[in-house]
Amino acid sequence: MNFAAEPTDILQRARDIRLLLLDVDGVLTAGELFLSDSGEEIKAFSTLDGQGIKLLQGAGVQVGILSGRRSTLLTRRAENLGISLVIQGREDKHTALLELCSAQGLSPAAIAYVGDDLPDIRVMKAVHLAFAVPNAHASVKQVAHACTSLGGGHGAVREVCDFILQAQDRYDAALAPYL
Fold it and tell me: Are 70 and 91 in contact (CB under 8 A)?
């Protein structure tokens, strides 16, 4: 992971995280949209990311999705991962974030976000800890506290999940059942 700020500051921020919010296209996926002639949408999700999400949830950190697009595939993927906090079709992600905070009784100081493009910038500026992926737009990388080494749809979310677990001293316990 590449840090835009002091690593110790970012570790401290990660210790405070109670909710990890994720963009979808370009973060949970590589950002490519495959459409069939019949209009069927196909997306590829990383199983590494899925395992990381499950580990983080098992450690008590909630995971949610905030997407500007609507997708039946995303709904299914979220259900498979046990993610109940799914906000879709909200191009104004900042307003959606504020509504989410109000409804969940959360402060942005308890939230981390992973984004890759312009609609993510205001959310990234509002939350306590913001991550970008390497293929993110340059303006997104400028506001991120850190940038993952792995690309969107290729383990970037797993990298963030592992980082938060390590910062909260929960990584070894999360992995223990598998060792």
Answer: no
pTM of whole model > 0.85?
Answer: yes
Taking the C-alpha atoms of residue 130 and residue 140, their distance in angstroms, rounded to an integer, is: 10
How large is the angle between the packed helices 47-58 and 72-81, nearest 10 degrees?
50
Q: How far apart are CA 167 and CA 147, in angstroms?
A: 16
Residue type, position 178, single letter:
Y
- CA distances for 135 relative to 5, 88, 148, angstroms: 19, 22, 10
Q: Is 76 helix (H, G, I), strand (E, B) or coil?
A: helix
Q: What CATH number should be reported for the domain whose range is 2-34+41-168?
A: 3.40.50.1000
Q: Beta-carbon neighbour count of residue 114 at 10 Å?
A: 30
Which residues share a beta bridge with 146?
A: 3, 131
Domain boundaries, the chain: 2-34+41-168
What's the pLDDT tens digit per position in 9-55?
999 999 999 999 999 999 999 988 888 888 888 889 999 999 999 99
The closest alpha carbon to 52, from 173, 126, 159, 176, belongs to 159
Q: What is the pLDDT of residues 112-159, one digit of tens each?
A: 999 999 999 999 999 999 999 999 999 999 999 999 999 999 999 999
| Bridge partners (DSSP) listed for residue 65 | 22, 86
